[in-house]
Amino acid sequence: MSELNTLALKILENGKGILAADESTNTMTKRLDGVNVPSTPENRLLFRETLFTASSMAECIGGVILYDETIRQETSKKNKIPELISSLGSYPGIKVDTGAKVLAGSPDEKITEGLDGLRERLKNYYKLGAKFTKWRGVYSISQNYPSKLSIQSNAHALARYSALVQECGMVPIVEPELLMDGEHSANDCYKKTSEVIKKCFEELILHKVDLTGIILKPNMILDGNKFKDKVSNNEVAKLTLDCLKNSVPSEVPGIAFLSGGQSEIQATENLNLINKINNTNFIMSFSYGRALQQSALKFWSKNIQDIEGTQKIFNHRAKMNTLAAQGKWSKELEN
User: What CA–CA distance (Å, rounded) separates 94 from 133?
Assistant: First the structure.
């Protein structure tokens, strides 16, 4: 087993998942504006520190994806954020792409940028304590999309990124996200997701990336949010498992799903159903942002000094998702 493989497995062991706390300053400002809290560096840090010091961190969260601002901040007790996360037995990670920009040649689609100067930035993040990284490719689904151009360009970028990350001794999270926005059916999502993931692995292999030392962060197979005749959650689980069995090489140690617009309960329930029928060797866990934080954020916004109350809500969500990652969750446990 390589060191990277050992690390990838540690992040996702025993039902642990990944807390995606890597919202950019813009995104975090939107979230805080939505709950009427001023978006200052202090408030952004206070909310994140509240989550990072919760008791569920040690038991349920194997890794935390940070944003550039956060990885450089210090806690109220003057610890560096990566040290705080490590002290709880979790691994600090960092988002390293610089965002999705308009794809030249297909202006309705996006390409993720950030390869320029990445090798130097990675060395710096490694020194700051990062053990893994994240890069998100984003794809729209419609009759004509994602185009071959978008599928190829994003796969190439994800592979180049992954090779540089492993060269620097960190585990890359490979995140190809096909968005839920649209009128497509779950079957359309299945076909397009399969095509995207297969192309990503072709490129990863071409770039000599060690597949045993990555974590895949895909979307689940869902109907578009504007599609009328929604499939059942059992069908979501079956299609998702099927898609990954047919697209992901068996060397990959773990898959950590993104929540991608699902509600908190929906994201937990679907993960649980996937694990109930998971007959592969892949660990199937979670890498959730909103689906772990939304209720906690709403509660916190009413009194940002109520650390304990906020942590209680976050601990519950983290625990529910850890049970779902083991196929042991049930609706009754939500009350």
Answer: 5
Read off the pLDDT of residues 12-32 as tens digits, 9 standing for 90 and up: 999 999 999 999 999 999 999
**DSSP 8-class letter at 281:** S
- Find out whether 140 and 97 touch, Cβ atoms under 8 Å: no
DSSP 8-state assignment for residue 266: H
CATH fourth-level superfamily of 3-334: Aldolase class I (3.20.20.70)
The DSSP 8-state label assigned to residue 80 in this structure reads: B
**10 Å Cβ neighbour count for 51?**
24
- The list of the chain residues with pLDDT below 70 reads none
pTM, 2 dp = 0.97
- Taking alpha carbons only, the member of 254, 253, 136 closest to residue 196 is 136
Q: Does residue 115 sit in helix, strand or coil?
A: coil
Cβ atoms of 262 and 291 closer than 8 Å: yes
pLDDT given at position 1: 78
Residue from 95, 110, 134, 217 carrying the catalytic annotation = 217
The predicted pLDDT at position 40 comes to 95
Q: Where are the domains of the chain?
A: 3-334
- Show the tokens assigned to 268: 């937990």
Helical ranges in 233-328 per DSSP H: 233-247, 264-276, 290-302, 307-324
Concerning whether 77 is annotated as a catalytic residue, the answer is no
User: In the chain, how many H helices and how many E strands?
Assistant: 13, 10
Contact 163, 209 (CB under 8 A): yes
